[in-house]
């Protein structure tokens, strides 16, 4: 299995109860899994644990046979090679599309950067928008750029937290189909969090109810 999460448990420091108890999940390479559950069920917390933004109280997390967390080991978030897309796009407002997309791309030469930029912008059909700023784009376009930015460093795993919740109903349907195409084209192994069963059905290969 490409992603293995075993017996994960977690409690926020100031909380009385455990938010995550003995959570387990296995994902095949290239599979898109949706975590579906109501508000407060712990969806975002699970993504924070996988990305390393919170430290679990117990369990194991492995991606592609690399241990990201167990009782002896904690890999820092920036070393995990995990891409994230959030509901609020979180593009840097003072940076052009080009700068936003290349932000997380490491030490590669100029030509390689241009190649990556063209490749991911082509993928999300936004090649003409390199020099635009986020406020000059529609909500759906900003979300496509957020996905291009997450994909540019070639992450081993992509986490998407309610990526459609800011979009109106028509756009939402369109974007989720586009995203599914993009994830499948890039063979991206992905975990996608939502409280909306239609989102989950449209995008995911498999739905996990929390
Ligand atoms: N920083 C924090 N400190 C203490 N408790 C927290 C913190 N963040 C979240 N929680 C609690 O942990 C539980 C799970 O929250 P989480 O955000 O993971 O839920 P969710 O399923 O993503 O909800 P939503 O769909 O509303 O975003 C909730 O009871 C929440 O109140």
Automatic annotation (TrEMBL):
MF terms in GO: ABC-type ferric iron transporter activity; ABC-type quaternary ammonium compound transporting activity; ATP binding; ATP hydrolysis activity
InterPro entries xrefs: AAA+_ATPase, ABC_SmlMolc_Importer, ABC_transporter-like_ATP-bd, ABC_transporter-like_CS, ABC_transpr_FbpC, P-loop_NTPase
GO CC, one annotated term: membrane
CDD domains recorded: ABC_Carb_Solutes_like
Catalytic EC class: translocase
EC numbers on record: 7.6.2.9
Keywords from the UniProt entry: ATP-binding, Cell membrane, Ion transport, Iron, Iron transport, Membrane, Nucleotide-binding, Transport
The ABC transporter domain, residue ranges: 3-210
Database matches in PANTHER family: SPERMIDINE/PUTRESCINE IMPORT ATP-BINDING PROTEIN POTA, SPERMIDINE_PUTRESCINE IMPORT ATP-BINDING PROTEIN POTA
Protein name: ABC-type quaternary amine transporter
Species this chain originates from: Fervidicella metallireducens AeB
Lineage: Bacteria, Bacillati, Bacillota, Clostridia, Eubacteriales
């Amino acid at each position: 299995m490409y992603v293995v999460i075993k017996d994960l448990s977690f409690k926020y420091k100031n909380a009385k109860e455990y938010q995550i108890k003995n959570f387990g999940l296995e994902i095949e390479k290239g599979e898109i899994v949706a975590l579906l559950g109501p508000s407060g069920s712990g969806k975002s917390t699970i993504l924070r644990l996988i990305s390393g933004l919170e430290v679990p109280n117990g369990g194991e997390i492995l991606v592609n046979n690399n241990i990201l967390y167990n009782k002896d080991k904690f890999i820092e978030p920036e070393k995990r090679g995990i891409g994230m897309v959030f509901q609020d796009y979180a593009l840097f407002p003072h940076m052009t599309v080009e700068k936003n997309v290349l932000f997380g791309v490491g030490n590669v030469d100029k030509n390689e950067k241009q190649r990556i930029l063209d490749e991911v912008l082509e993928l999300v059909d936004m090649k003409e928008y390199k020099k635009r700023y986020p406020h000059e784009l529609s909500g759906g376009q900003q979300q496509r750029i957020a996905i291009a930015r997450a994909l540019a460093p070639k992450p081993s795993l992509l986490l998407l937290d309610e990526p459609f919740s800011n979009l109106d109903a028509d756009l939402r349907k369109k974007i989720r189909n586009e995203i599914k195409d993009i994830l499948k084209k890039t063979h991206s192994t992905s975990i996608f969090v939502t409280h909306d069963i239609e989102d989950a059905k449209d995008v995911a290969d498999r739905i996990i109810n929390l």
